[in-house]
Inverse folding.
């Protein structure tokens, strides 16, 4: 977190923050726990329904995964991470501690139940189900995001420059074709490119990349933190408010849902939306919902904007990272480290990706970069948890989006607003229910 973001949070919070909470504080209409991009989108949509909404945030607005992600609306990214072939690739990845996937040995016993569910989610029938559900959610995500961007005045922060996925060999490209065929069956447009067309889409690539696939409907934001803070401004402009505090327990009762905070204070709400990202599991567990929510620790380095003439976001799928053009710089990041919330960052992972990016993009200037690590909340089947708690229908879950939180935030916000208002959701939500495992 840099000084600019701290100052911006402080200035905005001053306008919306409540006073210290009294133990008998009056009930709020609806409280959204978590002011990341998903919580902000939920609050924005609820306010559009005429609801009185207060955000409850343990740190600063958009200071978690919403702060330093790759900044993409990845509407074409419908393939679940758990796939029929993933278990064949995983051992080789795990042998490389700085590769696309890593698990610290000390964390392996804790994550083993999640890994077993992850393996089951990759079985052909389950994979196909998750892919179809993800595609349906992505269609809603695209339309809902377009509407939210216009309603919140965020259009200047969105670019429609597409994504270019790059392959180092014919064999790697051929192996990816079934995934593109699955996308085609869902109406997703793309273009395979070689030679002059590939160089036109992105000049300066290493000649090791012989083919690429361009998806024109992929979008990027100017900067994910700026986008989230602009949405926060729109939430406040619609009449929303924010309180800073850490929720430690939810207690449903006859008069509403009481939220217990770490400082001993309480807040009462008619309804609650739990959108705490990677920190959501303990609160859900306290209600009796034991969810297999894990943490993908993602790393990146942001270089100066002039570090490379980057025309659009590039995906190096075989190496598990992307390079994104932001107004704040060239961001090199990705990879998956399943290591929980407590371990310190291992920025050697950022350095390894940056070294590869320099080889893939000759001329990339790598000096003076800013490193970052964030926590992505991930479910074994790559599908988020959206819908009411099994313990109380006044508590709604909105978390577990993995690396697609920004992409699916507006869709999640729309679904939560519909559910909280008692209307049928825009798409079926059975596949997102918390007790599906």
């Amino acid at each position: 977190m840099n000084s600019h973001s701290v100052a911006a949070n402080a200035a905005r919070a001053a306008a919306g923050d409540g006073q210290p909470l009294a133990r008998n504080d009056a009930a709020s209409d609806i409280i959204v726990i978590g002011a990341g991009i998903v919580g902000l989108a939920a609050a924005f949509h609820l306010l559009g329904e005429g609801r009185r909404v207060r955000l409850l945030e343990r740190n600063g607005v958009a200071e978690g995964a919403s702060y330093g992600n790759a900044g993409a609306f990845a509407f074409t990214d419908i393939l679940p991470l758990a796939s029929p072939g993933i278990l064949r690739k995983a051992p080789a990845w795990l042998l490389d501690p700085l590769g696309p996937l890593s698990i610290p040995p000390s964390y392996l016993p804790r994550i083993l139940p999640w890994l077993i569910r992850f393996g089951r989610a990759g079985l052909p029938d389950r994979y196909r189900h998750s892919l179809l559900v993800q595609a349906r959610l992505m269609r809603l995500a695209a339309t809902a995001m377009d509407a939210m961007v216009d309603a919140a005045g965020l259009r200047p922060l969105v670019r429609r420059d597409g994504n270019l996925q790059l392959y180092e060999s014919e064999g790697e490209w051929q192996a990816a074709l079934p995934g593109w065929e699955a996308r085609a069956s869902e109406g997703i447009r793309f273009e395979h490119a070689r030679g002059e067309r590939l160089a036109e889409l992105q000049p300066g690539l290493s000649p090791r990349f012989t083919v690429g696939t361009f998806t024109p409907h992929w979008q990027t934001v100017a900067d994910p933190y700026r986008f989230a803070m602009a949405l926060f401004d729109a939430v406040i402009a619609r009449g929303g408010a924010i309180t800073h505090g850490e929720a430690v327990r939810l207690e449903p009762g006859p008069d509403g849902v009481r939220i217990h905070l770490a400082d001993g204070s309480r807040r009462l709400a008619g309804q609650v939306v739990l959108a705490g990202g990677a920190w959501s599991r303990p609160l859900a567990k306290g209600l009796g919902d034991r969810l297999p929510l894990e943490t993908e620790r993602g790393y990146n380095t942001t270089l100066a904007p002039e570090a490379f003439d980057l025309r659009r976001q590039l995906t190096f799928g075989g190496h598990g990272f992307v390079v994104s053009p932001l107004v704040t710089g060239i961001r090199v990041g990705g990879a998956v480290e399943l290591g929980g919330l407590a371990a310190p960052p291992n920025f050697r992972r950022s350095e390894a990706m940056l070294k590869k990016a320099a080889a893939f993009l000759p001329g990339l200037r790598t000096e003076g970069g800013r490193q970052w690590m964030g926590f992505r909340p991930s479910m074994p089947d790559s599908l988020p948890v959206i819908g009411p708690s099994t313990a109380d229908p006044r508590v709604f879950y909105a978390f577990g989006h993995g690396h697609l939180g920004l992409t699916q935030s507006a869709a999640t916000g729309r679904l939560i607003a519909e559910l909280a208002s008692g209307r049928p959701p825009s798409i079926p939500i059975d596949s997102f229910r918390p007790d599906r495992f």
About this structure: The longest helix spans residues 124-151. The first strand starts at residue 28 and ends at 33. The mean pLDDT is 92.
